[in-house]
Amino acid sequence: MRICFTSDFHGRRTLYDQLDTLLRREQPNLVILGGDMLPDGREHDPDGTQAAWVHEVLAPWIDTLKQVVPGLAVACCMGNHDWLRSEAAVRAEQDAGRLTLLEMQRVWNYKGVNFLGCPFSPPTPHFVKDYERLDTPEDRLPDFEGPIWATQNGRVRQLSVEEHFRQSPTLDAELAPLATPDDPWILVAHTPPYDTNLDRLPNLDYPIGSKAVRRFIESRRPFCALHGHIHEAPEVTGGYFDEVGGVLCINPGQTHERLQAVLFDTDEPRATLRHTVFA
């Protein structure tokens, strides 16, 4: 099976148009969007901005794409810029047969390969906190406050750092109870593993990936792990892939103007791996 993976479009139509061109040319079996695929929904109205974009822009784009790439399947996971309210919109499009939401508690099998998705990331300065967690129990509270989408009353709720991060499970705790899918399987985790080519920023001299995700990869051993979140990492480190405990891990990176994506064959991912920008 041939897969195209990319991430972190943030609703930019230029990147969606370039991905459309790539998919038409390469004709893969599956395209995976690794989180932060939607524009940043306004804090006062995430339902009318980001969630509406799922139905009004993303869904028609998928419909058109499937007409010109026969048999193409579309899968995605959420990311830290995505509101929880938008997950409900994505699920509605899943119910309509347009795409598949990759989740932690449900394994998706496509053409004999199992997939597991993880939307969470360690705390960031971005204001939406729905998919942010402390990475491990040892982590200190961050300085970054923000709102969540409160499903109980269907509105945005502002939270203190203490209230959100201490009352939510750590990312380590979110991952620990998950059943390991049957081989072969692929992990799609929005945040990359800690201390790799995939988790470095140009203005920081230390890695910012997830230790919990790294431990999960090392212990559960998917045959491949796909990540995004840190857009600049390939440019900073010179590499868009790395090995964690012998597992091939990939973060194609992203820019505002030029699509960064990878293509590979699941039979030979290392030998067939190709990037749209980096050799």
Provide keyphrases for this structure:
279 residues; single chain; 14 strands; six-stranded mixed β-sheet
Care to give the gist of this entry?
With 279 residues, the chain is α/β, with parallel strands linked by helices. It has a single domain (2-122, 169-275), classed as Metallo-dependent phosphatases (Purple Acid Phosphatase, chain A, domain 2), CATH 3.60.21.
Give structural notes.
The chain is α/β, with parallel strands linked by helices and 279 residues long. The chain has one domain: Metallo-dependent phosphatases (Purple Acid Phosphatase, chain A, domain 2, 4-Layer Sandwich), CATH 3.60.21. 29% of the residues lie in helices and 20% in strands. The strands form three sheets. The chain has a six-stranded mixed beta sheet. Strand 3 (73-76), helix 3 (84-95) and strand 4 (100-101) form a beta-alpha-beta unit. 43% of the residues are buried. The mean pLDDT is 95.
Q: What's the mean pLDDT score?
A: 95
Number of helices: 8
Structural class: alpha/beta
Q: Tell me the β content.
A: 15-25%
Regions with pLDDT < 50 over 5+ consecutive residues?
none
In CATH, the architecture is 4-Layer Sandwich
What separation lies between the terminal Cα atoms? 22 Å
Coarse morphology = globular
The total strand number stands at 14
Largest sheet: 6 strands, mixed
- SSE order: EHEHEHEEEEEHHEHEHEEEHE
How many domains, as an integer?
1
Strands ordered across the widest β-sheet: 4-3-2-1-13-14
Percentage of residues in helical conformation: 25-40%
The CATH homologous superfamily name equals: Metallo-dependent phosphatases
Rg computed from alpha carbons, rounded to a whole number of angstroms: 18 Å
**Main CATH class:** Alpha Beta
What do we call the CATH topology? Answer: Purple Acid Phosphatase, chain A, domain 2
